[in-house]
Design brief:
Helix content: over 70%
Number of strands: 0
Strand content: under 5%
Number of domains: 1
Radius of gyration: 14 Å
Number of helices: 5
Distance between the termini: 13 Å
Largest sheet: none
């Protein structure tokens, strides 16, 4: 996904790492870049809001258990796949 506006950090990169940001699993530099991007990019902020809700739902459903690393990796790969599919649809629409 890309909003079409120029940003220091690409929308795709931000959305790929949003779960690392939400879980405070990225370094401070990455955290600052993502926060700055979300502050200036409405489409990503909306997507981030959706991601926050999904994370909260999973947390409530799992009772605070930490997901296995293999699941985390599979989810991240699936998110990248979804972003690429959305980009392809957007590109075809142009």
């Amino acid at each position: 996904m890309s909003c079409g506006e120029p940003h220091e950090t690409d929308c795709r990169e931000v959305l790929e790492d949003v779960y690392l940001y939400l879980d405070s699993e990225c370094d401070e530099v990455s955290r600052g870049k993502i926060r700055h991007h979300l502050d200036e990019c409405s489409p990503c902020l909306r997507e981030f809001g959706i991601e926050q809700e999904v994370k909260a739902l999973v947390a409530r459903s799992c009772g605070g258990d930490r997901a296995p690393e293999t699941l985390r990796i599979r989810l991240k790969l699936k998110l990248r796949e979804v972003v690429l599919e959305a980009d392809a649809r957007e590109f075809r629409a142009e």
